[in-house]
Amino acid sequence: MREDLQAIFERDPAAKNVVEVVLAYPGLHAIWLHRLAHKLHRHGVPVVPRLISHFSRFVTGIEIHPGARIGRRLFIDHGMGVVIGETTEIGDDVTLYQGVSLAIYHTHDVPRLRGRKRHPTLGNGVTVGVGAKILGAITVGDCAIVGAGSVVTKDVPPYTTVVGIPGRVVAERDPTTGERRRVADDTRQVSLPDPELEVIRCLHAKVAELEERIALIETGQRTVARANGHNGAARPCNEEIERALQASLRAFEGKD
Asked: What is the set of domains in the chain, with CATH numbers?
């Protein structure tokens, strides 16, 4: 318990005193109640662990399955809407913010999933931002950071920062020096579609093509020279992306 209190004071600048933290920090209450529920769950006690978990959810707004394995000094800041699934494993010194889900990737073929590892594993020192979703039996490496609102469905290497939907690694951190470096975007690593990113890329290509045409007109050329493998025609966007672009523009203009 002393370690739990120490973790709060180290990671929450709003923590004023021990009495306030003990009485008014739902994340702390959820962790303490989970430890009781988890101990009973490990000893095979039926029903009661789930009742404790249910009571904890009612009081704190945080849902932790009794089967989840949680390490030392977990800090759940604010905590409302946090969900931690049955086969989740969390290392030491992890920080979770409100709205985080450590859940499964899909729910079809339930009989096959029952009794198997289906929730994520978080290494030591991981930080998961507000509203992030980490889905499936994947591993988030030590000291990784998952940005707010991200949806992660693939393993995250240690000492990296992941953002976006779907989540992609955007930065790496040297564990010795703490130095950060940006990581070039590689969409080949992404299995989920990212329609917003594709629309932005399509718009960027169209703007570049229009700027090229205007530049040629301003210089008095009557024909568009061959450049980048086209004759002044718009750079290709596939039909699906084109439809998504048009739909986004219509929504932006309030025509839908």
From this structure: 2-189 (2.160.10.10), 195-252 (no CATH)
